[in-house]
Structures are given as C-alpha cells and as structure tokens.
Amino acid sequence: SAHLLLGDAYLQLGDKKEALKAWGKAYASTKSISCMLRMEEVYKDLGQEEKIIKKYKAAISNSKDETREILIMLLGVLYLEKKSPQEAIRVIEENTNSEKSFISSLILGDAYKQDSKEIKSQKLIENATRQVKRAIFNFKCGRCGNISGKWTDNCSSCNTFDTLECLSRIN
Known about the structure:
This protein is mainly alpha-helical. It has helices spanning 2-12, 16-30, 33-45, 49-61, 65-81, 85-95, 102-114, 118-136; strands at 137-141, 147-148, 164-168. The chain is built from eight helices and three strands; from the N terminus they run ααααααααβββ. Strands 2-1-3 form a three-stranded antiparallel beta sheet.
C-alpha cells in the first residue's frame, strides 16, 4: 500500500511520528499486520510500548477470525517481551483455545515459565509438541492425492494398495 511505503520513507528520513501516522492510516485501510509490526518496532524504540498495546487492543476488538488471532498472539508476545507474563496469560487465555493452537500453547508456556509456574508451563509445551506432530505428519496417496491423518495399506479414497507416503508440512 502507498501508506505503508510512505511510512517506510518517513522512517528512513528519521521522522518517526509521520511514519507512525502513515502506518496507522495504512492499517485502517488494509488491515495488514505488517503495519502493526512496523508501528510496534518504532513504539518500542521510543519506549512507548503502551501506545502499541492500545492499538493492538483496538485492532483486536475490530477484527475477526485469523487476523484477530494473529493480533492476539502478537500482543501476548509483546507482553512477554515487557516481562508482563500475567498480562500475556490473560490475553491469550481469554481469547484463544490453547488446546487447538500450538502457537498459543507455546506463548502461554513461556508466560507461565516467566511467572515461575514451571509445571503448568511444561504441560503447555508438551501439548504444543503433540499438536505440532498432528499438524505436520499426514499421508498422501500418490495416485489420487487424498490426504489422511494416518497410514493405511490402502488409500481410503481410491482403494489403491501401497500408495500412501508421509507428507510433512513444515514451511
């Protein structure tokens, strides 16, 4: 977006205030997470994390689905960087399901560790590990392309024998 590039240009010229203003307009019109990340870096450089926290909260309340979830994760990580584990725990637990999201499990695990709750931290990390394993290991039929969560001798879709291969989705 033109606003995003304009903000980058202002930053290169050393005008952080105008850069922040341009990225704010860019986020308002595009809802691009890149704008929030750029603003976060500048606010952190200025020692004004509370301003980006306020912007994250506003963006979260005005977003839905995947964008909302990403903003929640970014806010949780920002709280961890600020050494505010209770705030990270609150924002993640109130807005996500760590049983289904390995990223929230990892953030919560880190937050509980910072908060000296080692057992809870360890359980969340173990949960994340199980989720990652389920997410990345699937099997694909070499004949019809059907994807299955477990290996079988015959493809459940085309019934062809010995065509399932491990499909690791790490990217």
